[in-house]
Every structure is written in C-alpha cells, then in structure tokens.
C-alpha cells in the first residue's frame, strides 16, 4: 500500500471514523487527524504547504495498516477530470475500437494494419506541431483519420469529467463495470491533485475503468462508458509534493498493473509516464482552461496500457470478469488494489455533498473561517 520510501513521504488521505470521514496526514510513522486544520481534504490542500501543518495524533501507522478497510478515496470535494488518448498506444487502440464498432472479434486485423501505418509515426511527433499536421494530412488522404488521432496529435487534449464529486472509491473497495458491457479493461493511471488555482499539490493512483464496447460504438457514449457506480478508484493516498517528491518523479513514473482472476487468469502490464505525448503540466493547464474549480480538481493523466492478451478464445482479447483483483502500483505512490464487480452489484453511492455537509456541521467542523 505504501511508497517504498514511506519514511520520507507526506501522505494525505481520508479515513472512515465513527463520527464521519476524516482527513488524515501520514508522517514519520504516525497518522494525524487534520480536522483541526480543515474539515475536508479540499480545504486542506488550499494551504500553501499542507504537509507542514500540525494535526492531532490519531494512531501509529501500523494500526491503520492493520485495518485498511477504513480507508476512503483520498479526495472529497474536488471535481474528477481525466485526460484521454495521451499515449500513442492508447490512440491506436481507440481507433481500433472505433473502426471495430466495439466488436472485439474484429480488433486484431484492424490493429495490425494501423500499427503498420501509424505505429511509429504517431510516437515520434509532438502534438500540435507542423510534423503532426503533416501526418494528419497523410492519414486523411489514406482514409485513416480519426477523431481519436485528432486529440492524440492535434493541439487540444481530450479532457472530460470522469465522475461526480464524492463518488470515487478507495483502496480495497469494489470497482464496477457496467453489467451490460462485454469488452472492458482497467486503466492504470497517475492522478494529479490540484487546488482551486490549478496548482498541483500532489499525486496518487487511479483506475479509470474503460468500456471498450460502449465507447467504440460511438464517442458520444463516453459519459455512459465512464461515469457509472463505483467505476472510478483513487488512492490509496495523495503523496504531497515536497523536496523529495516533485513533478519530475511523476514524469518518470513506471506504473505496473496486475490483474488476477478467480479463473487463474493473470494479466501483467506496465505504463511508462516517460512516453506520455503531452507533459503533465500541459495537461493540467488544459484541464483548467477557462474554468474555475473553487474546490480544486483531480486529473487522470491517461495510460499507455491497452490489454490485448486473449482471455478466452483467440482474437477476443481481454475483458474483465467479476472477482478479478486489480493491483496498480508504482514505487513512489504505493499500490491501489480493488476487486471487480458490476456497477449494478457494487454498493450504491449514497454519501453525497448534502450528507457530507450535514455530517461536518453536526461535528462542529464548519464553524471556522475557511
């Protein structure tokens, strides 16, 4: 669960205590209750140096690790945004979904043709550059242009809203895919956490569950493919930026994925942030755009990982089964682990903003000048 250098890390999270969700700071082997500083993680991250603030010592870290089921997603009021098609491989896979109309049986032949034509070229161009424009013209002439290639190499990134505020699930929770999806996969990603001014305060891990059949049928089904009950996992903690953990560590992160099924199926993959097409700071800028997010926002940075390993019959590729365990990890951020179920069968999301405000008011945590 923890970073390999946890003894030097400043970790922000949320814990389900008897009286309600509580922001916590992990530092020097101890867990601190930060409600004396701020009632929510959103409030807390508005401060200039959130990791330097003092809270009330709650417990030794070992006590929390012995009962990790109390962990919640480490964000609360932040808008959940995501960047899509930020890696060349993911761009090719999105084109495959589009051309196959969400039919996994057609994907292999289309993949081979696209890789031969654009696999190397798309990796070498800078999005929005003159070289990218020339590649676009050539692909249009070839009849191979796609809306997904537009966001992969064009000037504008794909930025979308992934999930509703407070709807994310944390470490150990069930993660949901739609019960009517027959072609889907996990998306292991690094997630930036920003304050209301768009300044990155730290990073965490996330799973942006992808329904390849839905989005492949039509890009207009993106919202139906992405925003479902329990379909967004974040955690286990936000590692706050400091002298020992900076954006450069995010840029160089190696994100590993392991999926293990109850059918003894095992899938492994890796996503190297060094291969991202747009710099994380640029994606953050495009997510902020002309918007203002008064409670801050988080941004999924996209993934290089696109599973093509056959699970059942040859040519059908990978898709989830209920009971799969998904582990996403990188040394600097720890590991996020969730078990797959359907969005229909996952626990219903009931604790929304209204309930949170009622809870915080009842605990006397909204009386300060925040």
Automatic annotation (TrEMBL):
GO terms for molecular function: hydrolase activity; metal ion binding. Signal peptide: none annotated. GO terms for biological process: small molecule metabolic process. Keywords: Hydrolase, Metal-binding. It comes from the Bacteria. Pfam families: FAA_hydrolase. Residues 150-340 form the Fumarylacetoacetase-like C-terminal domain. Belongs to the FAH family. This is Fumarylacetoacetate hydrolase. It comes from Sphingomonas ginkgonis.
């Amino acid at each position: 669960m923890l970073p390999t250098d946890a003894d030097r890390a400043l970790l922000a999270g949320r814990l389900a205590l008897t009286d309600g969700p509580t922001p916590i700071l992990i530092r020097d082997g101890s867990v601190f209750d930060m409600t004396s500083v701020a009632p929510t993680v959103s409030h807390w991250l508005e401060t200039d140096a959130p990791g330097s603030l003092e809270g009330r010592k709650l417990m030794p870290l070992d006590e929390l690790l012995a009962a990790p089921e109390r962990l919640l997603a480490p964000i609360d009021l932040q808008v959940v945004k995501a960047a899509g098609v930020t890696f060349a491989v993911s761009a090719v896979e999105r084109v495959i979904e589009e051309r196959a109309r969400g039919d996994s049986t057609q994907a292999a032949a289309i993949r081979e043709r696209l890789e031969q034509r654009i696999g190397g070229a798309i990796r070498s161009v800078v999005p929005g550059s003159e070289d990218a424009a020339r590649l676009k013209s050539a692909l249009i002439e070839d009849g191979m242009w796609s809306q997904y290639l537009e966001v992969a190499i064009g000037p504008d990134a794909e930025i979308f809203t992934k999930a509703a505020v407070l709807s994310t699930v944390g470490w150990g929770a069930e993660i949901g895919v739609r019960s009517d999806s027959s072609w889907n996969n996990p998306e292991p990603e690094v997630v930036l956490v920003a304050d209301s001014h768009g300044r990155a305060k730290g990073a965490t891990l996330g799973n942006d569950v992808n329904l390849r059949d839905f989005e492949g049928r039509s890009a207009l089904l993106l919202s139906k493919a992405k925003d479902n009950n329990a379909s967004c996992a974040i955690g286990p903690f936000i590692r706050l930026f400091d002298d020992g953990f900076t954006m450069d560590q995010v840029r160089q992160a190696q994100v590993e994925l392991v999926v293990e099924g109850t059918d003894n199926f095992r899938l492994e993959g890796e996503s190297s942030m060094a291969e991202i097409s747009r710099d994380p700071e640029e994606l953050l800028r495009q997510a902020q755009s002309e918007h203002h997010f008064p409670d801050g926002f988080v941004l999924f940075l996209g993934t290089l990982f696109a599973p093509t390993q056959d699970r059942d019959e040859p040519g059908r590729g990978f898709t989830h089964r209920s009971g799969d365990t998904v582990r996403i990890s990188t040394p600097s951020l720890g590991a996020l682990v969730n078990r797959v179920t359907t969005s229909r069968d996952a626990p219903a999301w009931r604790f929304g903003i209204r309930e949170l405000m009622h809870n915080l008011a009842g605990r006397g945590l909204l009386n300060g000048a925040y």
